[in-house]
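[SOLVED] Need 3D model of a two-part complex

Original post:
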Amino acid sequence: MLSKLFTTGALIFVALSTPVIAADDKIVITGSSTVAPLITEIGKRFEEKNPGVRVDVQTGGSSRGINDARSGLADIGMASRALKKDESDLKAYTIARDGIGVVLNSANTVSTLTDQQIVDIYTGKISDWSAVGGTQGPITVVNKAEGRSTLELFLHFFKLKASDIKAHVVIGDNQQGIKTVAGNPNAIGYVSVGTAEFEAGQGTPIKLLGMGGVAASVENVRNGSFPLARPLNLVTSKEPTGMTKLFIDYTQSADTHDLVKEQFFVPNGP
Amino acid sequence: MPEPANLIDREIHPVRDRVLLGAVWAAAMLVAGAFVWLLADLLWHGAGRLDWSFLSTAPRNSGRAGGIWPIVVSTVLIVAVAIVVAAPLGLATAVLLSEFTRRGGTTERAIGLSLDVLAGVPSIVFGLFGNAFFSVWLGLGFSILSGGLTLACMVLPILIRTAETGLRMVPDDWRLGAAALGLSRTTALHQILIPVATPVLLAGLMLGIGRAMAETAALVFTSGYVDRMPSSLFDSGRAISVHIYDLTMNVAGGDRSAYASALVLIALLVLVNGAAIWLSDRTLQRKIATR
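Solution:
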């Protein structure tokens, strides 16, 4: 009886093993887990408008996007940051922008922190909320894992090195950061402004802190006044042609602005 | 003269026995309670999102809206590939270990050790291996095939170890009997040993399927992230646990869909386990009826 099962299985296996779509009409995109959901949605709309074309989106982080675009494993890479100096061999196309804001649990009485205070908290010089005007309690520093674009942006903005930071909790994806801070009244973390604004609106117990006197809001990221922001980029190793070029042009067009907003990012343009 | 049966009924250490009884009951309740709590939490958050259209449509808006049908299909295909590849290999290795090697011999110990090491390897390592070997080196790319083959490597130790135990449980007298009747080893295996061990083989298969179906880390870099309906095994397809992970960790406002997807995953596991129990009961009954 088992052998019959295996024969049937093997037959189905062979039947399904035939590729249907030719490789020319397939665009493979890999990289940033922040950008992936957005590009997936844009890809679906693009597929509807261009029958026969397939957009395959894979995650793995910005570094992976850069590497895969370079090695040719992917047609397009996704990076949730600007290109670095040693990546000038690549071409970047900004599809949206995203702000990074510091978040606290809403039970925390602290309502503002200066840049210096944030640096001192993250380097371990300040370890109790009473030192920055809050009620007494040990600060739980939530940091992003090595290799995350958000971490790199945060370090660059505050002129810190990764080794300077004394973290209690190290997290990966954005929602994990929000959930960690929401679950711990003494936690401090930094996450995407758009998603934090949305979550706070949904009743998740977190609050966004302003930075340099500018409130952390999607509006202030859009008008450029919020200092800690990053571009969300598509990268290619050479000048894009054919379907790849068509797709990149499409992601930058106004046609996708509603999708960008649905993922709580800020569309290009005014 | 005391009746031997009375020894069991008589309370020799009433207090100690009661404490023991209480402790094992408490432990069992704790385990059951943890599961009930988990299930209640999932139902509380996810049941409202769960309906027929959730099961039968494709995800929209990164999974916040729409359903998970293509993801269920991908998951079933990935697990099917894994089992179709791993089950025959596993059975063959188990036969080698239990029938053709000396217990405690060098071959048996070497294979056994490598299996136990393999069983302890974290799934993310299988994921990286699968990506490097199946996706890149063999050129399968991000595909259901890559994911399924990676999972096959991962569940092999479980399948082999359980199948080996099942075969070893068959009394040696039966083997001697088969030999005395002049049956070849192939016939003995096919007609006696494997049929007798079938319930255990199926149990191992279930453990393997359960582990494969709930896998995330090994699949992110092999079968991938694409949530479209797969049209062949060479397509990338998102497994249900990858979907749950993405919704909770990466998609703001995706929690309710994540809970509902988790309920679907548990339902799938219960379904598979139920099918296995039914299958194993049926084979047992047939055996009793015909042999």
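Edit: Chain B has a mean pLDDT of 88.
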